[in-house]
Design brief:
Distance between the termini: 64 Å
Strand content: 5-15%
Radius of gyration: 25 Å
Shape: extended
Number of helices: 11
Order of helices and strands: HHHHEEEEEHEHEHHHHH
Strand order of the largest sheet: 5-4-1-6-7
Number of strands: 7
Length: 282
């Protein structure tokens, strides 16, 4: 409670420091400290150390992150979260989303400089237990690719149950809403997720640790995204490139990957995700 010991004590000094921390170029604490001390020397304030900058940054990040990192990052960190329970039975809520499949394939048609390629994947998933009902893949995301994934889902449901069934509710992002809204509404009640809020969709959470644990079983695994702590050893990746499977074999790898996820046993019960879905459906 002793404010006299504070070096950034009054409103003006705090505003200058916070404005420097909030700069969209995202300067580190040392750079902010130097800039603040230059201002402090010219205006009769005491200099500070980088540790002081870090203290104010952490304490006020909820106020600064929107300007420093952008509104989307702020919302995903500090925005209101409305938790929802999973649906009580299969096909009550189904979601779909795209995913850059983190498996490299060798495509000689792309030239010698960069012959390595990753497919774009569309996944249709049941929010009941994250069971993959259908999928499709291609070079780019198109409306037809999304429709193909839902068609695959309907055929897979028939394969499991012996009957033709559709989902009750669909939740997706707003990609291609003009071309696809009518398609979704013809299948089920359509409730698109809030724009730019990825965590609003159950399916988005499924592309995390468990997803990558299965991907790591393949020699052509590309690693998780560049900001993740699960990034792959890049030196190993460079050495392994020559042994990546050709693109002609990609369909076998993708089908195997999907089936591994479908037949993944629950860590506690040992029941596969597919069997869990089918038991609940019956």
């Amino acid at each position: 409670g002793n404010q006299r010991s504070l070096k950034v004590a009054d409103e003006l000094a705090q505003s200058v420091l916070l404005e420097l921390i909030a700069h969209p170029n995202q300067h580190d604490d040392v750079m902010v400290c130097k800039a603040y001390n230059t201002w402090a020397a010219a205006n009769g304030y005491e200099p500070i150390r980088p540790a002081t900058v870090g203290l104010h940054r952490r304490k006020n990040m909820h106020l600064l992150q929107g300007q420093r990192n952008g509104n989307t990052v702020w919302y995903n960190t500090y925005g209101k979260v409305i938790y929802r329970e999973r649906p009580s039975a299969p096909l009550l809520l189904v979601g779909s989303d795209d995913n850059d499949l983190d498996l490299y394939f060798r495509d000689e048609r792309r030239g010698k400089n960069n012959p390595y390629y990753r497919y774009q994947l569309i996944i249709v998933m049941d929010a009941y237990n994250d069971y993959i009902l259908g999928y499709s893949y291609g070079e780019t995301i198109t409306a037809d690719l999304i429709k193909a994934a839902y068609l695959d889902a309907v055929y897979h449901i028939r394969q499991l149950t012996g009957g033709w069934y559709l989902m009750d509710q669909i939740q997706t992002d707003r990609w291609g809403s003009g071309a696809l809204t009518r398609f979704y509404k013809n299948l089920a009640t359509y409730t698109p997720a809030t724009a730019k809020v990825a965590r609003a969709k159950y399916i988005e959470r499924a592309f995390g640790t468990e997803w990558h644990q299965v991907l790591k079983m393949y020699p052509n695994y590309a690693g998780q995204n560049i900001t993740s702590r699960f990034r792959i050893n890049r030196d190993h990746l460079e050495l392994a490139k020559r042994n990546f499977p050709p693109i002609e074999e990609a369909y076998q790898y993708i089908e195997d990957f999907i089936n591994r996820l479908r037949l993944l046993p629950h860590r506690k019960t040992g029941v596969t995700r597919q069997q869990q879905w089918l038991d609940a459906f019956n």
